[in-house]
Amino acid sequence: MNEQQTIEQLHGLKLFGMANAMASQLESPSTQSLPFSDRVALLVEAECHDRDNRRQRRLMAQAKLKMRNACLEDIDYRPRRGLDKPQLLSLGQCQWIERHQHLLISGPTGVGKTWLACAFGMQAIRRGYSVAYHRVSRLLEETEIARADGSLAGFRSKLAKCHLLILDDWGMSPLTDIGRQDLLEFVDDRTGAGAILIASQLPVAKWYEYINEPTLADAILDRIVHRAHKIEMRGDSMRKKLGLDDGEA
């Protein structure tokens, strides 16, 4: 069997990284002079790297982050923003996701809540966690559609399986009775099984009023707040400064 046939077989086995690395080795005299075990190690390393990249691309596509270029390395830590760098660096390790804890980001409009939420989402993807980003109002609309067409169980199951659920624009639109119940179901599905990140203009102290139904408010907030890390952002609107029309910086 010649080398080209071997490469084709590697493709057939879906070992794409290994196949590409072998093709590169055949074109590199210096690599061909390495011991056999070293060459095999390089092939395996290339395959692992390729699989990691493909998994990250798949997780990115599934997450549907609003701001895909957001990353924790680019955070603006100027004092006016009220960000605690040690806290954010610690949260960037994603142990809170592993422990099924939650992260609550609050602050005025335009200060960068959505951007920061997406940056944490990207960090989670980098570390191999699955992420789902939703604006609350749109999530509830999609839930109604799923209920109408009979796919609600599958829709909820899919969300329950992701490691991190990002709920953006929490508190922006009034909740209906069924919307409150749906929120409770989504939160309850993740209790002890997944992490939630919530971004909201409303301070956490006003979330009870936002839910506006004592029994459901108690049930929802009891499942979220007591297992949550909190980030309270301050400062002027980054959107106005950067001339952005949509989203947050």
Automatic annotation (TrEMBL):
Cross-referenced CDD domains: AAA
Domain AAA+ ATPase, first and last residues per copy: 99-232
Molecular function terms from GO: ATP binding
GO biological process, one term: DNA replication
Protein keywords: ATP-binding, Nucleotide-binding
Keyword ATP-binding applies: yes
Keyword match Nucleotide-binding: yes
The protein's name: AAA family ATPase
Organism: Stutzerimonas stutzeri (Pseudomonas stutzeri)
